[in-house]
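Quick question, first post here. What does this chain look like in 3D?
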Amino acid sequence: MKRIGKYFDKGALAVIVTTFILFVAALFTQGMTHDILLEAGVLLVSVKLIMMAYKNAVIADTLHEKLDAIYVKLGCHENEKP
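> Answer (accepted):
Ran it through. Tokens below.
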């Protein structure tokens, strides 16, 4: 379980597990309940995509800050950046 925690935070794992439960429950139901479970699962997939996009944006900002610090240490000017 420690290995999974390296790649997913607790919120992401909760969304993944809940989505899986909803889709499995939808396999064994019929009618309106089936449709509601599928829609809830699709909603959670969308939530997971939003969470991933946010996490990627935070990581990209961190990388940009680190690269800027490297440029400063190297003494490069703004117009010398590739």
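The radius of gyration is 21 Å.
Residues 2-57 form one domain.
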